[in-house]
Write a structure and sequence with these properties.
The protein has one domain. It has 2 helices and 8 strands, in the order E-E-E-E-H-E-E-E-E-H. Strand 3 and strand 4 form a beta hairpin. The longest helix has 20 residues. It is elongated and about 70 Å long.
């Protein structure tokens, strides 16, 4: 699976999972992106996802390069961490699940109101600059 960011960067991801969360006083959709630890550095992923312009549009591709989804406005990074993620359920209840460490990033989507405020701010900025 691959993720193409708005700036054109394409990274191989192990998993992309959607979930609803409550963040900054609003219910939001979010995506958890999981990357193989060691394939990309923590600092590299932190720098990429810290700029909202890079996560404005995310294109999720399957292994064959077909588009699985296009996600827009996921510009609020709520979490970046190295976590142990279970990768296999045990056959017996006494056996612990197999797990591996992954770099996990959670991006939350802006609400409709926040998106409209961004558009309004950009419009006002353009009008003010035109008057100068």
């Amino acid at each position: 699976m691959q993720i193409t960011f708005a700036n054109g960067t394409t990274l191989d991801a192990l998993s992309v999972e959607g979930q609803g969360i409550f963040y900054q006083g609003a219910n939001r959709d979010s995506l958890e992106l999981q990357f193989e630890k060691g394939k990309y550095t923590f600092d590299e992923l932190e720098a990429l996802t810290s700029d909202p312009a890079n996560t404005q549009r995310l294109i999720i591709l399957d292994d064959a390069g077909e588009t699985l989804g296009i996600h827009e406005h996921y510009t609020l990074r709520t979490e970046i961490a190295v976590r142990s993620v279970p990768i296999d359920q045990p056959i017996t209840p006494d056996e612990p699940p197999a797990a591996e460490e992954r770099i996990c990033i959670r991006l939350a989507q802006k609400t409709y109101m926040e998106q409209q405020m961004d558009i309004l701010r950009d419009t006002v900025d353009t009008l003010v600059l035109a008057e100068l």
